[in-house]
């Protein structure tokens, strides 16, 4: 089984991509012959290089051009053959030059890197594959597959998957995005404006709607998994917990070990093993609140504390607001506090009634009643004044991920710029 | 409705597959592909695996041979790896142990049948009566070397499939498209049409053979579905508009040349094969057999047939 390595590359002393290697000597791996390779992913935007590569992609292509009778253009559901990517092996991680490490997450390590050929700056996420007895981990497969299936303006773009010297080195190559929303929220001097929150929410909702339409649950939506570039565009990232729904679920149902505590929907907290798109929508509600508050909505230390915070903010569930409550596995072990009115209005004094309404539809107890991403996109909150701000008008921030230093808050030019933006906004027609 | 773009083999990959580069003749490669798919299908049945996982595995398996030569990997190992991987993709993972056992059983059974066939063909030339015996299957030990070797082979094969296909495992199965097209053509009420077209998608009126041709790695799903409908309607004598300026397949953006090519692939699966052809592929489930064959046929020189 050992001749699987293919045409073997001369052995390298040590991989620059070994995580534990810290000395940054200038020892470069041998330059690889630049493969003739039209990047698979680029075909969507520019079909031209693809066509150049297969001058006659099928035998019929030639005849097709000579056929005289006119055909209507291809339907969007039947893209021409030339738009399909060819079968391409993974490239080597040595096609990239490692820059700085961005963050060590729970699941992998993320680096900033440069494509040696195009010079593009990208993010590489190293997947944790060691100690695997069962081959390639299903979670990593889901992560890669979800990213490929859910391509969207507001989902972080996957470019390719590259491999290192050993079978345990696999990296997801993504577009590099300057910020994550968590860091941004904690370092930005002033909270987002209403108009900005609306733009970000619309982007988030359209990404989530897109994933749900493709039968993918994200299952870990939270601000640290939302990236934002300097052009005011949000990208949903980290599909490390994503999975398809609608599949018959195996013994034991879906795992409850999903979604970071603060963003976890009540049905999961109460032990439901059947859950669906609504769990992502609860998280979206928590993110909405966080964008307005500049801090997480439910800063709980444990599940019980989280539940009581939820009960306090929304009032405890009633048979009317959540008919299935009593049937959930953990409901019996929880004593509900006395009935009480929701506190959403008091918690968010600065948003309109429509804003509170959207929030309460996202933070709805009954998952059946909770608003869907598609419906939330149509909510009146987004069409009342102030209107969503055009992404181009967002001010930019120094990127911690790119290793840029933040200027001291008070030197920040962003405040006056913001005021100017506000003026622009009033006569801006989206 | 997902419109994600699944990969297809490029023209250079189609014209000269890696196996042909290595001197494996086209018809042998075709037979080995078909046989590998058949093993996947049979293993899927024994494992009670979902049909979608089996079909996905067969498509990944077919794609793999546009990226790699059969001299480098055996169709048995890659078949196991593809089924293992596809089962994860379809959220119905199988245990390596079960998979390895099923393949081992299948291969022992095939070897037995092959030995019997060879014996009886010898017997028919001489005058002695052939003696058929039952296969005595000896399950392997979980701690023996065979088990560990096979287990390792599955993991390696899975990783090779991933790497050589660039981790792009997008597979679109044809079944929804078939239902839609039949509906558009007003054929859903004809049960015989539905059954037969379904069979052609799986390449087979016979239950044995399914998805055994590389068409899913070569053509888009709408084209393949149209080909299945074409074969079906021709076979059942159903007339659909086929005049040049008004033919039904153009409704679905398919090209006549592609359709006839897909039909060709499917029908070629049913060409007569001799006993030698059959036993030949059975002996080449592992790459060792392929290499040995190449070795034996090299002396002939040039392109061997
Ligand atoms: N494409 C990217 N561009 C820039 N930074 C990224 C990118 N992807 C991830 N990061 C950074 O790395 C962190 C961890 O990545 P993530 O995919 O969330 O991994 P984990 O599963 O370990 O949480 C993110 O919070 C973000 O700060
Ligand atoms: Mg994360």
TrEMBL record, chain A:
GO cellular component: nucleus
Gene3D superfamilies: Phosphorylase Kinase, domain 1, Transferase(Phosphotransferase) domain 1
Region span, Disordered: 1-83, 389-430
Pfam families linked: Pkinase
Chemical reaction(s) catalysed: L-seryl-[protein] + ATP = O-phospho-L-seryl-[protein] + ADP + H(+); L-threonyl-[protein] + ATP = O-phospho-L-threonyl-[protein] + ADP + H(+)
EC number(s) from the headed UniProt entry: 2.7.11.22
InterPro entries associated with the record: CDK, CDK11/PITSLRE_STKc, Kinase-like_dom_sf, Prot_kinase_dom, Ser/Thr_kinase_AS
GO biological process terms, semicolon-separated: regulation of mitotic cell cycle
SUPFAM superfamilies for the chain: Protein kinase-like (PK-like) (SSF56112)
Family listed: Belongs to the protein kinase superfamily. CMGC Ser/Thr protein kinase family. CDC2/CDKX subfamily.
Protein's name according to its UniProt entry: cyclin-dependent kinase
Lineage: Eukaryota, Fungi, Dikarya, Basidiomycota, Agaricomycotina
UniProtKB/TrEMBL annotation, chain B:
InterPro entries reported for this sequence: Cyclin-like_sf (IPR036915), Cyclin/Ssn8 (IPR043198), Cyclin_N (IPR006671)
Coiled-coil region(s): none
SUPFAM superfamilies: Cyclin-like (SSF47954)
Domain Cyclin N-terminal: 27-169
Source species, domain of life: Eukaryota
Gene3D superfamilies: Cyclin-like
GO molecular function: cyclin-dependent protein serine/threonine kinase regulator activity
Pfam family, one: Cyclin_N
Protein name per its UniProtKB record: Cyclin-like protein
One biological process term in Gene Ontology: regulation of transcription by RNA polymerase II
């Amino acid at each position: 089984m050992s001749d699987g390595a293919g045409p073997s590359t001369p052995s390298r002393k040590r991989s620059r991509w070994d995580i534990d290697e810290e000395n940054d000597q200038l020892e470069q791996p041998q330059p690889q012959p630049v493969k003739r390779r039209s990047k698979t992913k680029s075909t969507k935007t520019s079909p031209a290089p693809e066509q150049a590569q297969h001058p006659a992609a099928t035998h019929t292509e030639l005849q097709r051009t000579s056929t005289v009778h006119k055909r209507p253009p291809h339907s969007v559901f039947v893209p021409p053959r030339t738009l399909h990517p060819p079968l391409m092996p993974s490239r080597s991680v040595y096609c990239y030059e490692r820059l700085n490490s961005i963050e060590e997450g729970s699941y992998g390590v993320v680096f900033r890197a440069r494509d040696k050929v195009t010079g593009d700056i990208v993010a590489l996420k190293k997947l944790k594959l060691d100690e695997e007895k069962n081959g390639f981990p299903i979670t990593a497969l889901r992560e890669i597959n979800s990213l490929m299936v859910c391509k969207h303006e507001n989902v972080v773009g996957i470019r390719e998957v590259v491999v290192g010297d050993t079978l345990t080195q696999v990296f997801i190559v993504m577009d590099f995005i300057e910020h994550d929303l968590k860091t941004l929220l904690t370092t930005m001097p002033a909270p987002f404006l209403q108009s900005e929150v609306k733009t970000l929410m619309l982007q988030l909702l359209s990404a989530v709607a897109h994933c749900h339409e493709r039968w993918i649950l994200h299952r870990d939506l939270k601000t640290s998994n939302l990236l934002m570039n300097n052009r005011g565009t949000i990208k949903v990232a980290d599909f490390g917990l994503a999975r398809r729904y609608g599949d018959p679920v195996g013994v034991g149902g879906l795992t409850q070990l999903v979604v970071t505590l603060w963003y976890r929907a009540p049905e999961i907290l109460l032990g439901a093993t059947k859950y669906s798109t609504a769990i992502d929508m609860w998280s979206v509600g928590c993110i909405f609140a966080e964008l307005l508050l500049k801090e997480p909505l439910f800063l709980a230390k444990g599940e019980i504390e989280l539940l009581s915070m939820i009960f306090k903010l929304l009032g405890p569930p009633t048979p009317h607001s959540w008919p299935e409550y009593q049937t959930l596995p953990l409901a019996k072990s929880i004593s509900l506090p006395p009935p009480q009115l929701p506190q959403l209005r008091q918690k968010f004094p600065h948003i309109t009634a429509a804003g509170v309404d959207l929030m309460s539809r996202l933070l709805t107890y009954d998952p059946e009643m909770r608003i869907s991403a598609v419906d939330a996109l149509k909510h009146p909150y987004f069409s009342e004044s102030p209107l969503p701000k055009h992404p181009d008008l967002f001010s930019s921030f120094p990127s911690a991920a790119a290793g840029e230093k933040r200027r001291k808050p008070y030197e920040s030019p962003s405040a006056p710029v913001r005021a100017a933006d506000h003026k622009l906004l009033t006569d801006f027609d989206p | 409705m997902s419109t994600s773009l699944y990969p297809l083999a490029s023209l250079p990959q189609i014209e000269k597959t890696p196996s042909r580069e290595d001197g494996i003749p086209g018809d042998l490669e075709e037979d080995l592909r078909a046989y590998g798919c058949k093993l996947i299908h049979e293993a899927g049945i024994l494992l009670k695996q979902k049909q979608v996982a089996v079909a996905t595995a067969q498509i990944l398996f077919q794609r793999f041979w546009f990226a790699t030569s059969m001299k480098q990997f055996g169709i048995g190992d890659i078949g196991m790896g593809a089924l293992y991987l596809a089962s994860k993709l379809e959220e119905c993972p199988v245990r390596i142990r079960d998979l390895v056992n099923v393949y081992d059983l299948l291969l022992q059974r095939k070897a037995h049948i092959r030995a019997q066939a060879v014996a009886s063909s010898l017997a028919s030339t001489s005058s002695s009566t052939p003696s058929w015996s039952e296969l005595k299957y000896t399950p392997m030990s979980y701690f023996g070397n065979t088990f560990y070797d096979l287990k390792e082979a599955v993991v390696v094969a899975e990783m090779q499939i991933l790497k050589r296909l660039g981790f792009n495992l997008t597979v679109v199965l044809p079944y929804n498209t078939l239902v839609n097209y039949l509906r558009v053509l007003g054929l859903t009420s004809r049960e015989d049409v539905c059954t037969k077209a379904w069979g052609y998608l799986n390449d087979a009126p016979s239950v044995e053979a399914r998805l055994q041709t590389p068409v899913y790695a070569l053509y888009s799903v709408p084209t393949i579905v149209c080909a299945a409908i074409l074969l079906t309607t021709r076979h059942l004598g159903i007339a659909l508009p086929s005049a040049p300026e008004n033919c039904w397949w153009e409704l679905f953006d398919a090209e006549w040349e592609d359709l006839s090519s897909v039909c060709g692939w499917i029908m070629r699966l049913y060409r007569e094969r001799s006993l030698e052809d059959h036993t030949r592929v059975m002996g080449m489930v592992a790459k060792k057999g392929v290499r040995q064959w190449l070795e034996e046929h090299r002396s002939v020189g040039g392109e061997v047939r």
